[in-house]
Amino acid sequence: MSETSVLPDKQRVAASFSRAAGSYDSVAALQRSVGNHLLDWLPLTSAPSRWLDLGCGTGHFSRALATRFAESEGVALDIAEGMLRHARPLGGAQRFIAGDAECLPLRGQSFDLVFSSLALQWCADFAAVLGEARRVLRPGGVLAFSSLCVGTLQELRDSWQAVDGFVHVNRFRRFEDYQGLCAGSGLQVERLETQPEVLHYADLRSLTHELKALGAHNLNPGRPGGLTGRARMLALIDAYECFRHADGLPATYQVVYGVLRKED
User: Fold this and answer.
1) What Å distances lie between residue 187 and 114, 178, 264, CA to CA?
2) Could you tell me the end-to-end alpha-carbon distance of the chain, in angstroms, rounded to an integer?
3) How far apart are CA 187 and CA 117, in angstroms?
4) 3-state DSSP helix/strand/coil percent for the chain, to nearest 5?
5) Among 5-9, 68-72, 120-124, 170-174, whose mean pLDDT is lowest?
């Protein structure tokens, strides 16, 4: 099965995150932690004269980049119009653009830094994303990204597997796919690794409410239609309870971090 057959289509992604724009920041603790970690990974070189926040969402990291690189020009881009409407009044970037990471509406060699945190996992064609990043980067420019890979929300996936055979949890690429695609991108791979992040919840409803508020609930093809029956939900709760420990119900995210450079 090809990766494009198991990842969500971009229209569904855009619509889901547009609807979640108003609630996203209230439940984005993981997203903040991962993005801050990615900021720490940025090379300690001269400040970029122009940067791109790719998949900017509500603009939190556009504003962080603007603070860090106060003399630089920033562009924020997202496929979800609702996110851009939320981000624009808060500032940070000089321009906010609706666009697709797989086909950027931007000139070649126009950025020194492309920063993207927890957005590229929704792109079906990651090779195209890397090709576009290489195209818009100036020589010596850097792509810094975080994403998600297989193993993310494995507890929820396993619990659903014990209940029925439908797809209820978003699918993600294998880390080995990220390695291969980055190696063949024409960009120099400076760092690429995966790190687990584990969140804990008092109950299953807290986790599913957070995923919906983020716009990151089940977006993949093959998901069951209609409402989930009460009996199946009770069975899911029972299955997930097997993972409970002293800190609560765990939800593991396998986070991919990468720093790639366009050679001079």
Assistant:
1) 13, 13, 11
2) 37
3) 18
4) 40, 25, 35
5) 5-9
Taking 60 as the threshold, does the pLDDT of residue 115 lie above it? yes
Q: 198 forms bridges with which residues in the sheet?
A: 252
Comparing CA positions, the residue from 80, 82, 36 lying closest to residue 61 is 36
What percentage of the chain has pLDDT greater than the value 90? 73
Question: What is d(CA 16, CA 10) in angstroms, rounded to the nearest whole number?
Answer: 10
What pLDDT does residue 165 have? 67
Backbone angles phi, psi at 111, to 5 degrees: -135, 150
Amino acid, single-letter form, for residue 182: C
User: What is the four-CA torsion angle of 198, 203, 208, 209, rounded to 10 degrees?
Assistant: -110
Phi, psi of 18 (to 5 degrees): -60, -45
**Which of 130, 141, 116 is CA-nearest to residue 61?**
116
pLDDT in tens, 240-258: 999 999 999 999 999 999 9
Helix (H) or strand (E) run with residue 224 in it: none
Distance CA 200, CA 207 (A): 9
Instruction: Kindly report, residue by residue over 187-208, the tens digit of the pLDDT.
Output: 999 999 999 999 999 999 999 8
Taking the C-alpha atoms of residue 24 and residue 35, their distance in angstroms, rounded to an integer, is 14
> What pTM value is reported for the model?
0.90
Which domains can be identified in the chain, with CATH numbers?
Answer: 3-150+171-197+254-261 (3.40.50.150)
Residue from 103, 102, 83, 101 nearest 93 by CA? 83
